[in-house]
Each structure stands twice: as structure tokens, then as C-alpha cells.
Specification:
- The protein is mainly beta.
- The protein has one domain (2-168): Sandwich (Substrate Binding Domain Of DNAk, Chain A, domain 1), CATH 2.60.34.
- 13% of the residues lie in helices and 43% in strands.
- The chain has helices at 28-32, 120-126, 158-168; strands spanning 2-11, 15-19, 40-41, 47-51, 56-65, 78-86, 90-95, 102-105, 109-118, 128-129, 137-144, 151-154.
- Strands 1, 5, 6, 9, 10, 11 and 12 form a 7-stranded mixed β-sheet that branches.
Length: 176
């Protein structure tokens, strides 16, 4: 395992992002349309769209790169999985509306991402965290894998249930 990032991230609107190719247009719905999970949007090739329980403030995020599926850690309260492509051999962690982020080297290729959260409900109820210590924390585990449908592995909070329901109801867009 390689730890790519471990630290605090400032979120607004409960959002953080993993930029894959530098061309995200900001269309949140497009990241989730066609998915069952509403916590990690992977439907646009440019980005992984990460939802947090906290609306505004500091959250803890760890990003790990593995050679193979590390297995599920049941101590996490919320767990979802998505597939994505890293076309350029690098990814960037971005805060909301940030121009610059934290770049991380990963080999170009197809990946599975497991996004996990703790204290999401408590953070959602708090809404805004003005402390330097995060209430909710998240971990994004990445490993090479062929593409597969998104999957809700574990859901315990009402805020996660809300986002899963929201994503599952998004209308498919017609292309002309």
C-alpha cells in the first residue's frame, strides 16, 4: 500500500473532488446519473465527485493506492465503490472551487475506488465545523481493476441514504 494523501480538506456544500483529466465542467448531476450510489460520482471521465456529511469546514481524507483489492474494512459506516480511468497517470485532490490541488502520481489505467466514511450523519447534523479538528473522516482506496458497475457496500446514515436515493432518481439524459 502507498499512502498518497492524509490530511484535512476544506469542504463547502459537502463536496471535494478527485480530478482525473483537468476538464470538469461543474455539472454535479452528470457525475452521478446512472449510478445507484450518491456518495462518489464517477460517471464523468474527468472527475470523481466526493460527497461529505459536513456542509462547510474541515474533513479528514486519506487516499491509498493498492496493488489489488485491499478487502472491506467493516469499521467504516458508509462504503461505496466505483470504477474510473486515470488517463494521464495522475490524479488531483481538489477542494470546492479550488484552482490548485494536491497532485498524486498513479499509473495510467483502469481503477476501482472504494470511498468510505465515518461520522457522516453527525457531521451533517453539525452542518458547519469551525474547528481545526475534523468530525467526519473519509478514505478513498484505489487499486487497478476492470470497469464494473457502482456498488453500495454499506449504508448506515440517513444522509447517505438521502444521497443514494437522489442519485438513483436522476433522469438519464438523451444525447442528440
Amino acid at each position: 500500500m502507498t499512502e498518497l494523501f492524509a490530511g484535512n480538506v476544506e469542504v463547502q456544500y459537502g463536496q471535494a473532488y478527485i480530478e482525473l483529466d483537468g476538464s470538469f465542467d461543474g455539472a454535479m448531476d452528470d457525475c452521478f446519473v446512472g449510478q445507484r450510489n450518491g456518495l462518489c460520482g464517477a460517471q464523468k471521465p474527468a472527475i470523481l465527485f466526493l460527497m461529505t456529511g459536513l456542509h462547510t469546514g474541515i474533513v479528514g481524507i486519506t487516499i491509498n493506492l493498492f496493488d489489488a483489492d485491499p478487502g472491506i474494512d467493516e469499521s467504516w459506516e458508509e462504503i461505496v465503490e466505483v470504477s474510473f480511468q486515470a488517463p494521464k497517470g495522475g490524479i488531483t485532490l481538489l477542494e470546492w472551487a479550488a484552482d490548485d490541488g494536491v497532485g498524486m502520481a498513479v499509473p495510467a489505467g483502469s481503477y476501482r475506488a472504494r470511498y468510505q466514511g465515518r461520522a457522516m450523519q453527525a457531521a451533517n447534523e453539525l452542518n458547519t465545523n469551525i474547528d481545526d479538528i475534523p468530525l467526519d473522516s473519509y478514505q478513498l482506496d484505489l487499486w487497478p481493476a476492470p470497469s464494473a458497475a457502482d456498488h453500495i457496500v454499506k449504508q448506515t446514515s440517513t444522509v447517505a441514504a438521502y444521497w443514494h436515493d437522489w442519485a438513483s432518481r436522476l433522469p438519464l439524459k438523451q444525447k442528440f
